[in-house]
Amino acid sequence: MDVFEELSQTRAALLDTIAGLHEDALDRKGVVGEWSIKNVLAHIAAWEAWVVQALPARMATGETPEHLRARLADEDASNAAEVAEREELTPAEQLMELERTRDALLAYLRGLDAATWERRRPWSTWEGSLAEYLRAALSEHEAEHIADLRAAAEKVRG
Predict the structure, then answer these.
(1) Are the C-beta atoms of residues 113 and 59 closer than 8 Å to each other?
(2) Which residues pair with 126 in a beta bridge?
(3) Phi, psi of 32 (to 5 degrees)
């Protein structure tokens, strides 16, 4: 399966998991640890936005820009800050951000040539290809959260 299809399938599974939930249910705190379903979506959007920001520089220079390295240094603190930054968004707005971020990622990826896709070790901290990175950083990340979202959706449905 190509990476575009995999990203699409994982996102569809994530959205199917929460389909039909009312905004109040999406915004209810404490259903995924201390977070709401909306907060998990904020976390996913924030991580994907970071990837969208980091990829062009990583692919061009082989390094993660200094201003983006802080995210990697303390992921828990970064996750908390990113989710807090998006707290004022409604669930519908958070879903729109998730979609906009994915659209930006796909637009960037569609502009890459075959040599870029095939290159091994495109930046100093990644041994594999870009497709392997996207699977690990995005598809697998979303898949990890789907189980939590499924449990949370069952909880709020009662």
Answers:
(1) no
(2) 123
(3) -135, 85
